[in-house]
UniProtKB/TrEMBL annotation:
<protein>
    <submittedName>
        <fullName>Sulfurtransferase complex subunit TusC</fullName>
        <ecNumber>2.8.1.-</ecNumber>
    </submittedName>
</protein>
<comment type="similarity">
    <text>Belongs to the DsrF/TusC family.</text>
</comment>
<dbReference type="Pfam" id="PF02635">
    <property type="entry name" value="DsrE"/>
</dbReference>
<keyword id="KW-0808">Transferase</keyword>
<dbReference type="InterPro" id="IPR017462">
    <property type="entry name" value="Sulphur_relay_TusC/DsrF"/>
</dbReference>
<dbReference type="InterPro" id="IPR027396">
    <property type="entry name" value="DsrEFH-like"/>
</dbReference>
<dbReference type="GO" id="GO:0016740">
    <property type="term" value="F:transferase activity"/>
</dbReference>
<dbReference type="InterPro" id="IPR003787">
    <property type="entry name" value="Sulphur_relay_DsrE/F-like"/>
</dbReference>
Amino acid sequence: MKKIAFIFTHVPHGASGGREGLDAVLATSALTEEIGLFFLSDGVFQLLSGQQPDQILMRNYIATFGVLALYDIEQCFICTDSMLERGINPDVALVIDAIRLNQQQMYERLSGYDVVLTF
């Protein structure tokens, strides 16, 4: 069974990449259990709690990340270097329980995946 990594690199609002990536993750979960989610660069904003997308007339899909456990998707990683570069405290509350890794550790984890998709 192939291991599939999904990398989120864009902010959650103002573009559809995050929602499309999440839809792809949920659809792929029916085909394999070997799924990893990686949040790098601006993608770290996807997991911040307390967002209010309705204030900018955007649809709130961030809460949907909470259903990942129902799909047995537990390998979720967030880059602490990316968080620090964006002024986010690495200890901030997230919408899911993501493993916090530095950039080097993220790339080491990614190297174990057969397929990598970026959103």
